[in-house]
Amino acid sequence: MKTIPLMFIALIILSISFPAPIKAQGIVGCDAELDKCEVMRNNQQWGLVYNTCCKKLKKPGPQPCMCLFFKYPALKETALSLLRFCHAPIPKC
Question: Where does the signal peptide begin and end (predicted)?
Answer without folding.
Answer: 1-24
